[in-house]
Amino acid sequence: MSKSDSPQYWVFSNKRDGAYGGSIWDMTTVLKKQSYSIKESQANRKRVRPGDVVYMRIFGRSFIGRFIVDGPWKALPARQQKWKDTAGAFPMSEIEIWSRPIPQSLVLPLLSNQNHRGRIMRINHDDGVAIETAQRVYVKLGFGDADGKVVILEKGLEEAIKPNLGKQFGLKLAGDKIRQQFAMGVDVGRSDLICIDENGDYVVIELKRGMTSDETIGQVLRYVGWMKENMAAEGQEVHGWIVAGDYDEQLRLAASAAGIKLLLVRLG
Question: What is residue 154's predicted lDDT score, i.e. its pLDDT?
Fold first, then answer.
């Protein structure tokens, strides 16, 4: 293979899942369609070739996996264009989504290219080796599994969880007085789901479709505290759960310390 035929290495960066409202730019849609959406004017787009290796990053959060560019960038049909700049995509193959994403803070300082703001960032072969080595080490060091996993096939996370409450979680919805999207008062917030477990205790569930951070811990603890003071009967416990599409080590450790159960959801 000549030098010109050798694969190039790139980092494609995207916002957290759900930031684009389920459009072609959301990571769930990208992975489902195996088509990575990039605007025509995006810097470096013209330099990406079929056969190149791409590492996928969520801005400000983590590296989540890699893929091979399976063909040239193609614009969407004219009838599907909704943006001022022409939208299109690179077809993807050999997609690997890592079971444990790597916090970007562990990876970015290792890279030869320190311009981290671009959607398409050129790196070299050694950078690719560093990223994959960091991922293997991160897994082997035990950073760190969730309390459980659930796979759902429906598109809407909240509506998909509800039919699985009994079978996969041993829960049921709390009842008429406590509903889905239950408002807890001024400056407290609105919970996603409140359930009853097999012991008759309340379970407050916060749903996060994509990556979530340890800020979610304070949110869940606030809901748990409100439920204890306002709804729980004497002797009735209130537990907090987070069901997330992804999480970082900070969240896992904070959840463990706070006694909050963390479940990893995989969307089909």
Answer: 40
